[in-house]
Amino acid sequence: MQLFRVSANHQISAQFLDNRRLSKQVLEIYQIIRVCLAELQIIEGNTKYLQHPIVKHVFNNGSPYLSDTWRYLQACNDEHILRGGIRNIEFRSQLFKLGQTIEEYKNLYSVEPLPPYFVYGDRKVYGQRAYELYQTLLYDKWSNDKIAPRCGIHR
């Protein structure tokens, strides 16, 4: 699991992602949020990923950054749709319900923005440098991809 954030601005981060990773990012953020909500016993769900470094970071010791993480999900989903991506009716409905749940219980979450955090393998970096590291990681991944990234970003 990753939160590919190259900027504190969610729209910039979403625009930076290639089509394949953008679609996958929406699904991963959706899963991260659901794990946090399940751990807070707001919804029923699997919490086995709570120990994953990214999920643990978002969960923030029980005061999760869900409002801001939700905004990142929305930015990624909006960018996905803008590029011609399609969401089936069931997933659109699930996203809508997730948004309603986040709004309903917003008093339980941190109002702070999600702090930048880079995790790749054993490497973990907090702070502004995390954004640069995700850019570098994405460039590296794109250079090894067999399919062109189709995101409009050039190195």
Task: Please explain how this structure is put together.
By secondary structure, this protein is mainly alpha-helical. Helices cover 54% and strands 5% of the residues. It has helices spanning 10-16, 19-39, 53-59, 66-82, 89-104, 129-144, and strands at 117-120, 123-126. A hairpin with a 2-residue loop joins β1 and β2.
What attributes characterize this protein structure?
single chain; 155 residues; mainly alpha; two-stranded antiparallel ribbon; 6 helices; 54% helix; 5% strand; globular
Distance between the termini: 24 Å
What string, H for helix and E for strand, traces the elements in order? HHHHHEEH
Strand content: 5-15%
Query: Helical proportion?
Result: 40-55%
Number of strands: 2
- Gyration radius over CA: 15 Å
Mean pLDDT across all residues, rounded? 94
Biggest sheet details: 2 strands, antiparallel
Continuous helix count: 6
- Which structural category fits the helices and strands? mainly alpha
Strand order of the largest sheet: 1-2
The shape, in one word, is globular
Low-confidence stretches: none
Q: What is the strand and helix layout of this fold?
A:
Blueprint: H1 10-16, H2 19-39, H3 53-59, H4 66-82, H5 89-104, E1 117-120, E2 123-126, H6 129-144
Antiparallel strand pairs: 1-2
Helix pairs in contact: 1-4, 2-3, 2-4
Would you summarize the structure shown here?
By secondary structure, this protein is mainly alpha-helical. The chain is 54% helix and 5% strand.
